[in-house]
Amino acid sequence: MSIEYVDFLAAFLIPLASLIGFSRMYLGLHYPTDCIIGAVLGLISSIMIVYITTLL
After folding, report:
1. Which of 6, 15, 24, 37 has its CB surrounded by the most CB atoms within 10 Å?
2. How far is CA 43 from CA 6, 22, 26, 27, 28, in A?
3. Model-level pTM?
């Protein structure tokens, strides 16, 4: 996967995930801490995946 493609995906998916998290709080479906903890867990898991794939 080229770095330009990854940059494009990041530029598209990070704002999308942020908007989804905000909409969940706005609609009253989740507490803000739920969205924050979900974002932190997603960040940690993505860092772990990148680290593991670079070892292979």
Report:
1. 24
2. 16, 17, 22, 24, 23
3. 0.74
